């Protein structure tokens, strides 16, 4: 990280566009979470600068708590605003932002259990519940069929 900061410091000026490709490589997860904040602090005296960071790190995305930061999903052609992702769990980031939930995603597990509980209590789904169910069904195609969460989503599909 020090090498990256020194490299930027040697070239930055007001109005610079700084592109950083996967800065999370070889960084501890805690450092990934604080990277954007550190960039802002170190280069606060420069005005009109823009940082574009390509990343696959849920920690880096979760640590992006500035109102001036956005996440662009190229796969979905969608721009996420800070309130949609900041300070959320890695499992949330992997599922909702990166569309790659991985195995035993606890965020998805909680989400599907909430919907299954509503069904068990014979409560009606509201519009948000229906949208959540659709997102779960889409994410299921990116999950392993040996994942217990995959099977809970299947059960939701059967009962829904």
From TrEMBL:
Any GO MF annotation of the entry: ATP binding
Domain ATPase AAA-type core as annotated: residue spans: 14-62
Stored Gene3D superfamilies: P-loop containing nucleotide triphosphate hydrolases
Pfam families: AAA_21
Highest taxon of source: Bacteria
Protein name: ATPase AAA-type core domain-containing protein
Organism: Pseudomonas kilonensis
Lineage, opening ranks: Bacteria, Pseudomonadati, Pseudomonadota, Gammaproteobacteria, Pseudomonadales
